[in-house]
Amino acid sequence: MSAIEMSPATSAESYADLKLLIAGEWTPLGNRESEPVLNPATGECIGILPHASKADLDRALDAAEKAYPVWRNTSPQDRGKILKRAADLMRERAEHIARIATIEEGKTIHESRFELNFSADVIEWFAEEGRRAYGRVLPQRMPGVRMTVLKEPVGPVAAFAPWNFPIGNPCRKLGAALAAGCPCIIKPAEHTPATALEVARALVDAGLPKGVISMVFGVPSEVSTQLLASPIIRKLSFTGSTRVGKQLMKLAADGMKRTTLELGGHAPVLVFDDVDVDQVLDLSVVSKFRNAGQVCISPTR
């Protein structure tokens, strides 16, 4: 790619040096393929995002495979302590992370601050929920026979998150996987990489073992194809369009991988005869225009 001029004030003071997180190591651009990250309000280039190579993805897969036995055998209480520390670090860094989210995603700083606090709460909630992965004892017909159901980590997860909630989407995917004892390779949106990297940084700084999380970027179809073709990955988590969700489901089907897909919606507003019309309008306008309408459940009809 050709060199692109960046505003020193924007990139140096308010943005970040973009890297990959692979096998516990912050990996710089080097000779990798890359793409510019643009400020949606001005169109200026604010950063250069490195793309993960095939070798990088293989390293992330190998690290997840090696980290899995260690992380799954870490007690839910100890996993939860790390997640809670990460949530606290996010709150301590709230203004810094919120400013980055606003610069690269375009939402108001008020919305970014709200999203940050909500996302830290999500991480903390999963930290507690991991301690409640209870099993069951099933009644049997035969005397003297007991059948039990135990919940165990499924294995390394490949996760893909969109740009509309650059803090919240990675936190929901990482929080669920990590609390359950599963390493995670996550590819957030290339439009909003620095925000997701700050979430990863909080987890690493909180004491997450090496290799339990990798954060990569690149051409989405190439990254997803390589990750989901690997037998190391046992679970797919995706938020995005129905069209892409169908493609990922096909890739996951070859390896019989479990899938969780949060796809596009077409949300109606139902207005009945007995309502306060002014109140309906107030609620509907807020719901429609929150985050510039880029919410999965924004009213559309």
Structural class designation:
alpha/beta
Uncertain spans: 1-12
Q: Main sheet?
A: 5 strands, parallel
Query: Compute the gyration radius: what is it?
Result: 21 Å
User: Mind telling me which CATH architecture of the largest domain this is?
Assistant: 3-Layer(aba) Sandwich
Under CATH, the topology of the largest domain can be stated as Aldehyde Dehydrogenase, Chain A, domain 1
Helix content: 40-55%
How many helix segments?
10
How far is the first residue's CA from the last residue's CA?
42 Å
Shape: globular
Beta-strand percent range: 5-15%
Query: H/E order of the elements?
Result: HEEEEHHHHEEEHEHEHEHEH
How many strands appear in the DSSP assignment? 11
> What's the CATH class label of the largest domain?
Alpha Beta
CATH superfamily of the largest domain: Aldehyde Dehydrogenase, Chain A, domain 1
Describe the structure in your own words:
The chain has 301 residues and is an alpha/beta fold. The chain folds into 2 domains: 9-264, Aldehyde Dehydrogenase, Chain A, domain 1 (3-Layer(aba) Sandwich); 268-301, no CATH class. The protein is 46% helix and 15% strand. It has 10 helices and 11 strands. The strands form 4 sheets. A 5-stranded parallel β-sheet has the order 9-8-7-10-11, sandwiched between helices. It has a two-stranded antiparallel ribbon with strand order 1-2. A two-stranded antiparallel sheet has the order 3-4. The longest helix has 21 residues, at 109-129. The chain is globular. Mean pLDDT is 92; it is low at 1-12.
